[in-house]
Amino acid sequence: MAEEANPFESLQEYVGDAAAYLGVGEGLLTRLQNPERVLETNLTIELDDGGLETVRAYRSQFNDDRGPYKGGIRYHPDVTRDEVKALSGWMAYKCAVVDVPYGGGKGGIALDPRSFSTGELERITRAFATELRPLVGPDTDIAAPDVNTGQREMNWIKDTYETLEGTTAPGVVTGKGIESGGSEGRLEATGRSVMLTAREAFRYRETPLDGVTVAVQGYGNAGAVAARLLDEEGADVVAVSDSTGAVHDPDGLDAQMVKEHKKETGSVTGYVDAAEELTGEGLLTLDVDLLIPAALENAIDETLAEEVRADVIVEAANGPLTPAADDILIERDVSVFPDVLANAGGVTVSYFEWVQNRQRFYWDERRVNDELETVIVDAFDRLIEVFEEYDLPNLRTAAYAVAIDRVVNAHAEGGTWP
Ligand code: NAD
Questions:
Q1: What is d(CA 288, CA 329) in angstroms, rounded to the nearest whole number?
Q2: Cβ(343) to ligand 1 under 6 A?
Q3: Active site residue: 106, 158, 259, 262, which one?
């Protein structure tokens, strides 16, 4: 097994590669590779049994040249300062790829949510929101859900912020419940942009999506929705996995039924209509047309990259390939459609939610989905244009080139002062 890549170093490498094509000078490159500031703090809360617990929390504000910092908050035992810094940079460049007027931010708390009661999680979330209050707001920094957080946590953060500020400000977070100012279509937005990217990828390759075989690693919000929508578009989802294992059926799985099974049992394994069970790694090396990593970073390293048999990878997760894996996949002629495009549906519909919050005027789901499709297809076309025009090694470099160009232009227009 290759040494685990540091996601922040991966981000810096991607930015450096693309900046070199654009001729960005050293002085500006440092800015493009590092967050503007990082909050690192202790949250100490009272447990249900009266004891105290302290957890470590982070918020990285990467860049606000194009608008307020924007990005999710993750609850996971492996959260580190470097992971949060990397994820905040990905957000800055993702927002620029799809041209939504935001910068990038990300937060995380190093904890396993399964070890805490709902009341304890609420106290931790409200403690974090209290720490964040001077740094966030609808015009400065806007949080959203990420791994192991969702509408519930966003509603708590919004309520804490509004209570402390003595106002109503639903735009301080996105991904809220509908009654708290959330948007129709937000829950499915990331999976939808994964499906749209895959659809456009196969159109670009002049292959119909109908009958394309698909394996999905990670059957959570992003992966399960992408699988269901691809199924509806005529693709054959033949294998899916989660942290407990994988199921495979060469004749195709019913994506929605697997999701129901996971909801009931907590796992995709044991799904009776699957022909066989696989290991997680077995899924990543299946002979399929399309592989969708939708779990966590560094899922495919250089060793696994040698064994991948898919023709196309669409990254639903953030940073699922290490840079070394990327290099091998270029050599092996596997087309990788990068995270900053493919999973940008989440932040795009978050932007729509924020626009609706500011206008206090709400859209129906059809409008949200139509506007999302326009954004993703336009971004896809721009990325292909740049990829072909500059003869770039892969679509990731093209995506970063598009994004960095926009961030650099915004910075230049603002000028340097004093
Ligand atoms: P989630 O918690 O809903 O789902 C994650 C899934 O991955 C779970 O089913 C989990 O069991 C599975 N998993 C974890 N480790 C695994 C492993 N080793 N092998 C196989 N499966 C494993 O999270 P999500 O919201 O779907 O996010 C998944 C990825 O997508 C993350 O990288 C996240 O940053 C990214 N993303 C999510 C959104 C969003 O709106 N949800 C937006 C942009 C990016």
A1: 15
A2: yes
A3: 106
Report the predicted TM-score, pTM, of the whole model to 2 decimal places.
0.94
User: Whose Cα sits closest to atom 31 in ligand 1?
Assistant: 317
- All structural domains of the chain, each given as residue ranges with its CATH number in brackets, are 36-170 (3.40.50.10860), 189-342 (3.40.50.720)
Catalytic, 263? Answer: no
Question: Is the peptide bond between 418 and the residue preceding it cis, with omega within 30 degrees of 0?
Answer: yes
Q: Pick from 147, 154, 225, 353 the residue to mutate for probing ligand 1's pocket: most ligand atoms within 8 Å of its CB.
A: 147
Q: Which of 60, 173, 190 is the best mutation target for the ligand 1 pocket, counting ligand atoms within 8 Å of the beta carbon and taking the most?
A: 190
pLDDT in tens, the chain (418 residues): 456 778 899 899 999 999 999 999 999 999 999 999 999 999 999 999 999 999 999 999 999 999 999 999 999 999 999 999 999 999 999 999 999 999 999 999 999 999 999 999 999 999 999 999 999 999 999 999 998 999 999 999 999 999 999 999 999 999 999 999 999 999 999 999 999 999 999 999 999 999 999 999 999 989 999 999 999 999 999 999 999 999 999 999 999 999 999 999 999 999 988 889 999 999 999 999 999 999 988 999 999 999 999 999 999 998 899 999 999 999 999 999 999 999 999 999 999 999 999 999 999 999 999 999 999 999 999 999 999 999 999 999 999 999 999 999 999 998 887 7
> Is 194 a pocket residue for ligand 1 (Cβ < 6 Å)?
no
Pairing verdict, β 245-248 and 276-278: antiparallel
What HEC string does 60-101 produce? EEEECCCCCEEEEEEECCCCCHHHHHHHHHHHHHHHHHCCCC
